[in-house]
């Protein structure tokens, strides 16, 4: 069984074709600058040279057509015919309260996703574009929606309700939803495998640390709390997002700076985070270089970021009443030994002892704590595409 996994952004389309009999990636790539001049596809079939196809892609339908042409191409393709594609798995960011798991896409599901677009205006519309495009190009191929929010639907009400008038929750569904659920689920399951224990017996804090970042408390296999909220803006300081702050700052800034709600939203989402503090970049590699060169604002940006992660780990350990493992994943979590070490310093009271030699690694599944550390810290590269493919296979 071969599953095509699609992750549609506003102007990009990431894809993987996976043979689910072996879980081998047959091909992968990305279409960029969709709807913009200079669009192209970077494509790589396993065992073959990478190719770049420059072509006009006015919309996601055109991009998917080019991707499918790449997959069946005589020299750089991975399959002989599109009939080999058994199903398409779509990453969908927001499923609201409707979906606590992945679903086969039908008219009712699409209608619900349209409704949820109000909650994720930057993400759900391009996700839907990919779904509609596939319907036209591959009309007989079943499709599955896998939601970033679904894994967190196990949170109790005490975790997801905000202290606002309850009728606002009833009316607008204002609540914590959480994101990166596919990643949190995957690394929690892998952690249990690596530790050789049932997931149902473990208390794990999973740290998805990239330009966008979130932390989840996974208590015996279920998410009971997570740092992102109604939108992906809440929680950690991120590349360009402010994360947690006093909500009164919003009205203060609107009055003092004369900002519209849209301008303020842009400031908090695009101009804040470590970029806003450092004034250097949203790329942690640039900030770490600047910090090494003595840039005080860069140093402070890293301290703020790491302190926020540490605070959430401690809070979630308290919420779960114990801690068996901490998992670092995503770009920064997988590749920055400095971040892992800084976050874990001071957490010795939770039974965490980082081994500097084991921690000196990038992007490789491993345990980075000492052998006598009661709480294990793991580095696990995330694999959301494989998780989406597995969910798709299970449903189809």
From TrEMBL:
Taxonomic superkingdom: Bacteria
Give yes or no: UniProt keyword Transport: no
Q: Where in the cell is it found?
A: Cytoplasm
- Provide the residue positions that the database annotates as binding Mg(2+): 7, 384
Q: Which residues form the signal peptide?
A: none
* Keyword annotations of the record: ATP-binding, Cytoplasm, Kinase, Magnesium, Metal-binding, Nucleotide-binding, Transferase
Any one Gene Ontology BP term: acetyl-CoA biosynthetic process
Q: How is the cofactor bound?
A: Mg(2+). Can also accept Mn(2+).
Pathway of action: Metabolic intermediate biosynthesis; acetyl-CoA biosynthesis; acetyl-CoA from acetate: step 1/2
UniProt EC number: 2.7.2.1
Q: Where are the transmembrane segments?
A: none
Instruction: Give the record's family classification.
Output: Belongs to the acetokinase family.
Q: Which HAMAP family does the record match to this protein? A: Acetate_kinase
Name of this protein: Acetate kinase
Name the gene behind this protein. ackA
